[in-house]
Amino acid sequence: MTKSLRPVLLILFLLLLTGGFPACNKMTPPKNPIEEEQKKVMSNKGRFVSDLAEPANITLAKVEGVSLIEGLADTGADEPPSTYQEMVLEDLQRDPDKKKEARAKLASMTTAIGMVSAIVPPGARKGDRVDVEVSLIPNSTATSIEGGYINGGRLYQFLLADYIRKGAVDGLVAGQIILDPDLLERGDPVAMKKGTIIGGAVIVRDRPIWLTIRPEERSAGVAKRIEDVINNRFCAKINGVKQNVAEAKYGAARINLIVPDEYRDNIARYVNVISHIAFFETQDELNRRLSSLRIKLADPTTSELASYQLEAIGPNNQLVVDIIAEGLESQDESVRYNSAMTMAYLNAPEHRSKTAQILGQLAENSTLYRPSCLAVLGTCLKTSFEADQVLHQMLSSKSNETRYGAFRALWTRNPADYMIEGENLGGQFSYHCLNCDGAPMIHVTKSKRSEIVLFSKDRLFLSGRFDIDAGQRIVVRSSEEGIEVKRYSVDLDESRTVGYNLDSVIRAIVDVGGTYSTVVRFLIEAKRADALKTRSDDGNGQVTIGSAPLVFDALPSGVSPFRRIRDVAEIEQEITSAAEARRKEKKKSFWSRANPTGWFKKDDNEEDFSETFSDEAGPQPAFDNGDAE
Question: Pairing state of beta strands 451-455 and 429-434?
Answer without folding.
Answer: parallel
